[in-house]
Sequence to fold (331 residues):
Amino acid sequence: MMQRYEPGQRDANVPIPPTAVVAMGGHAFIKPGERGTYEDHLNNAAEISQALMVLIERGYRIVITHGNGPQIGDQMTRNETSSGDIPRLPLDVLVAQTQGSLGYYLQRALLQELHAKNIARFVTTMVTQVMVSPDDPAFENPTKPVGPFMEREAAEKKRDTDGWQITKDLNRGWRRVVPSPKPVKIVQAAMIREAVRSGNIVVAAGGGGIPVAINPDSGLFQGIEAVIDKDLTSGQLASDVDADLLVILTAVDGVYLNYGEDDATMLGAVTMADCRRHIDAGHFPPGSMGPKVEAIYGFLRRGGQRGLITNAESLRDALDGQAGTHFIGRI
Ligand code: ADP
Ligand code: MG
Fold:
C-alpha cells in the first residue's frame, strides 16, 4: 500500500502531521578529504536522504535547508578562471545556482529513497530570496570569508580592480570577505509553507537564501553581494512555516559547554533560560555554534516548541531522546 497525502481531503479524526525544518551545513555534501566532485555530491546526498527518512517514517512533513560554502567557493573559482571568455556572475546569482544544484541532488536522492520505501511524496526545491536591510550594521563590517584562498598579491589586485574587501586568514592565505546581514523576511515563505502543508518535502533557503533588498530609487528588488547565515534563516523559516521542530544537523553530536577543553560537557536538555545564560557566558563562538544556538533561541522566543542540534548519525537516537542537545520552548 502506498501512503498518500490528499491535500484538502483531511479526515478530521486524523491528527495534523507535525512539521520539522532540518538545516544542514554545506559540508554535509563534501566530507573531509573529498574534493566535491559530482559523485561526492551524489553519494553524500544519498546518505543525507537515508538519515532523513527517520523523520518521514515518524510522520513529519519536512523543509530542508542547507549551507553552500564550499560550492560557492568553487563557483567563484569558476568565475575567476573563466572570466576571459565568459561574463562573471555576481554572488546572488551564484547562490541561486547552488540552491538549484544542491536542491537537485537532494531531490534525486530523496525520491530514490521514497520510491524504494513505497512512499508517495513529492520533493521540490524553492529558489529562495531573503530580504536584508541596507541599514544592517553588517554592511559596515564585512566578516564572512567566501571563495578560494589567494596569494596576497592576487587578493590586493581584486581589492583594487573589483573593490573586493579582503582579509588575511591566520595561515592559509587571503580571502574575500562579504557582509553577513541578518535575514529580515523570506520572500517565498508563504509558498514554502503551502508546499509543505500539502505534504511535499521542500528544499528551500539554501545557503541562507539569496540576499536581496529594495532599491530605494527604483523600488525594485536587487541582488546584494552578501551571505546570510543559513542557521539564522532556517530559524526564521521554521517560524514562518509554523514548524513544531527545528533540527540543526552539523558535525558534532551535540552542543557542549567548554567545547574543546578537558572539562567539555554535552548539554542534554536546555530550557530557554539556560540557553540565554550559556549564550551570554560565551560558550558558542560566532561563525560556528553561535548562530545555531541563536537560531533555535529565536525560534523558541517566537513561539516554537522544540529545537535539536546533533549530527546525522545520531538523528534517530536523538528523536528518541537518547542523543543530541534538545532545546525546549515555553510549555
Ligand atoms: P556547519 O557547517 O554545520 O554550519 P560549523 O562548523 O559552522 O558547522 O559549526 C559547527 C561546529 O562548531 C562544530 O563542528 C564544532 O567544531 C564547533 N563548535 C564550537 N563551539 C561548540 C560548542 N560549544 N559545542 C559544540 N560544537 C561547537
Ligand atoms: Mg556554519
